[in-house]
Amino acid sequence: MLTLMAPSLGAAAIEDAVELAKRFGLSLQSSVSPDSEQHAVLSLQGQLADREGFKSACLTLSDALRVDIVLQDADTFNEEYGLACFDMDSTLIKAEVIDELAKEAGIGDQVAAITEEAMQGLIDFRESFTRRMALLNGLDESVLEIIAARLQLMDGAELLFAGLQQRGIKTAILSGGFTYFARMLQRRLGIDHICANELNVLDGKVTGKVLEPIVDAQVKADTLEQLAAELQLPLRRVIAVGDGANDLKMLAKAGLGVAFRAKPLVRSSANYAVSVCGLDAILQMIGPR
């Protein structure tokens, strides 16, 4: 099945998606548009010999039409999910907090360049995190509150969390960012669990030193598994959402791993991608409850 989503979804986009499916040997069984201006679900039949090729073609068509076209098996759409895990920076909020800290320290461009390399998967996250933290040595602790006050939630975040809570799905932040900001989001969105990095502050100043354990890709994936086990959930009933290379391991663990407005490497590697719509589009991917 294909799920098509856009702020304003026209009939032409649905027609183009059906034509694409035909080129890969699939035919339209049924089309449901619960809110025709925003999303549609196309049920397809036939044997898909080249799933990766079809997925890649869907991403290309998504870019051309400015529509999210998501290839899903029916069981992922109808699964009874019990846990949803999220990256924080550039996923739940419209910023990379470490870059915001660097701006306050007057080294924004320098740190942002390292952040971008890490998110693209060009350098190891632990290495990049250690290098960036070292540059923040001496930053006044008072800037944390200033940054927190200006952070914006990602589009659709509040709608998504309201929908997840209505369905009884537990939620978690698994972030390479900082607990100070994760706790703020936890209070605002009603998030059940957080796992993030602790800023080392001494005498009111950020020391630039890294406190272990660093929450990297492996820690995110391991924590997702741990939370699922505690909730007695098989991994197929877990949702994971993130945008960077350090999210790929947790996206691969989850039954529904969604690359959200992600870097090209992450978008092409993840099983599912949302690049046009807000976070609330994920509710369309997990079906009604």
CATH superfamily of one domain, please? Answer: ACT domain
Cα-to-Cα separation, first versus last residue: 19 Å
Structural class: alpha/beta
Instruction: Give unreliable regions as ranges.
Output: none
| H-E string | EHEEHEHEHHHHHEHEEEHEHEHEH
CATH class of one domain: Alpha Beta
- Approximately what portion of the residues adopt beta-strand conformation? 15-25%
Largest sheet: 6 strands, parallel
Share in helix: 40-55%
How many E strands?
Answer: 12
Which CATH-level-2 architecture of one domain? 2-Layer Sandwich
What is the 3D shape? elongated
Radius of gyration: 20 Å
Count of alpha/pi helices = 13
Strand order of the largest sheet: 7-6-5-10-11-12
The mean pLDDT is 92
Which fold name fills CATH's third level, the topology of one domain?
Answer: Alpha-Beta Plaits
Brief summary of the model shown:
The protein is of the alpha/beta class and 289 residues long. The chain has a domain at 1-71: Alpha-Beta Plaits (2-Layer Sandwich), CATH 3.30.70.260.
Give an overview in words.
The chain contains 13 helices and twelve strands. With 289 residues, it is α/β, with parallel strands linked by helices. It has a domain of 71 residues: Alpha-Beta Plaits, CATH 3.30.70. α11 links the parallel β10 and β11. α4 runs antiparallel to α5 and α5 packs antiparallel against α6.
